[in-house]
Amino acid sequence: MNPLPVLNEGPPGVPFGDAPLMLESIPALQDEVRALAAERGAVILAHNYQLPEIQDVADYVGDSLGLSQRAAASEDETIVFCGVHFMAETASILCPDTTVLLPDLDAGCSLADSITAAQLRDWKAKHPAAIVVMYVNTTAAVKAETDYCCTSANAVPVVEHIRREHGDDVEILFGPDMFLGAYVEKTLGIRMHVWDGECHVHAGIRPGDISRVRAEHPGADFLIHPECGCSTSVMEYVAAGDIDSDGVHMLSTGGMLRYAREHQGGTAIVATETGMLHPLRRAAPDVDFIAANEAASCRYMKMITLPKVRDALRDGRPEVKVDADLATRARLPIERMVAIS
Ligand code: SF4
User: Fold this and answer.
1) Cα separation of 303 and 161, whole Å?
2) Helix or strand or coil: residue 252?
3) How far is CA 135 from the centre of its chain?
4) Could you give all domains of the chain from N- to C-terminal order, each with its CATH number?
5) Which of 89, 102, 114, 200 to mutate to test the pocket of ligand 1 (most atoms within 8 A of CB)?
6) Does residue 4 carry a pLDDT above 60?
7) Pairwise CA distance, residues 6 & 161, whole Å
8) How much is the mean pLDDT over the chain?
9) Which atom of ligand 1 is nearest to 199's Cα?
10) Average of pLDDT values for 96-123?
11) Which of 52, 74, 179, 291 makes an SS bond possible with 236, Cβ 3.0 to 4.6 Å?
């Protein structure tokens, strides 16, 4: 792909690359990003945990499943994926003929990094009859070794489906999120083999923090957004009784936005990565959305900056491309998940 010419050198102070972004530079940069996207025939997809100025310039903002579905339906020449590496890989798996750009290739995921394809192959070798269920937060190489993918929203139905198909005694290898695995076990009253991976962000959302914030805001609703691995721990705390379940709403991204639109005034404490607060506050400016912990921020998501998005659009790189054979194998567990959901 040929680099596009720089459309706009921008006013003084508009940064390039990793230079610090000044608030007053944002509108000019957003204009430049939109112009470059139009010129390249690119759609900009952004995860809910992206920086606000990136969410505001995107064509579509959503959770990882929503972004995958939007990517799969894309007829654009290029997708600029504002999220983390495994998500861009998933877009490449679902749209093999589309150029997928990830503005920073170092935007990884601590949960996806907690299991490699080699580790999964070793685990499978110890349990040759087992069915493998992996959270979508995994690399393409791990998906290629997987029978079913799942998200936090459909993990229980996926495991129920497997038990219906293969019998209640079926052995299941579930990973890499140990909190989601424990949640599924408690909800269904079953035992699985669960990998002990986790997302680093959940460490910022502990039961003690949650109880303290809830005590400071009596009567506030408590919303859990079990997207990514950052708040599956909170699902598990509720299932285990470590958190009072009164006033708890477990909501997908769509459910959260519906909640925001249907409420006027009041306070809601939200257990999620803090980026999700931006679309919620935009959808319902008069509801006071409070983070269960302001420190629950994914450093990988925040590696994508507006100057990097602009540079990716201008230069047509860096690209994420999953090898065709690997993509064929990795597509199967995603398609099985989608068929069940
Ligand atoms: S919030 Fe956690 S699970 Fe989600 S991308 Fe960041 S590190 Fe990965």
Assistant:
1) 37
2) coil
3) 11
4) 23-108+301-323 (3.40.50.10800), 112-198 (3.40.50.10800), 202-291 (3.40.50.10800)
5) 200
6) no
7) 51
8) 89
9) 2
10) 97
11) 179
Spacing of C-alpha 270 from chain mean position: 16
- Cα distance between residue 256 and residue 270, in whole Å: 10
User: Are 179 and 155 in contact, with CB atoms under 8 Å apart?
Assistant: no
Classify residue 225 by burial, with Cβ atoms within 10 Å: 0-12, 13-18, 19+. Answer: buried
For residue 14, pLDDT beyond 70: no
In order, the DSSP letters of 19-39 are SPPPGGGHHHHHHHHHHHHHH
Question: Ligand 1 mean position to 299 CA, how many Å?
Answer: 8
Atom in ligand 1 nearest the alpha carbon of residue 177? 3
Q: What is the pLDDT of residues 25-36, one digit of tens each?
A: 899 999 999 999
Q: How many angstroms does the Cα of residue 4 sit away from the middle of ligand 1?
A: 32
**Is pLDDT above 90 for 170?**
yes
What CA–CA distance (Å, rounded) separates 204 from 107? 20
Q: What pLDDT score was predicted for residue 18?
A: 55
pLDDT of 1 reads 44
Which atom of ligand 1 has the smallest separation from the CA of 298? Answer: 6
For residue range 269-328, list pLDDT tens digits in order. Answer: 998 889 999 999 988 899 999 998 888 899 999 999 999 999 999 999 999 999 999 999
**Ligand 1 pocket, Cβ-based, cut-off 6 angstroms:** 84, 109-111, 137, 199-201, 228-230, 273, 298, 300-301
Q: Which of 276, 273, 272 is nearest to 260 (CA)?
A: 276
From 64, 137, 302, the mutation candidate for ligand 1 (largest count of ligand atoms within 8 A of CB) is 137
Residue whose CA lies nearest to ligand 1 atom number 2? 199
Query: How many beta carbons lie within 10 A of that of residue 49, not counting itself?
Result: 29
Instruction: Provide the 10 A C-beta neighbour count for residue 268.
Output: 21
Report the residue count for the chain.
Answer: 341
pLDDT, one tens digit per residue, over 143-159 is: 999 999 998 888 999 99
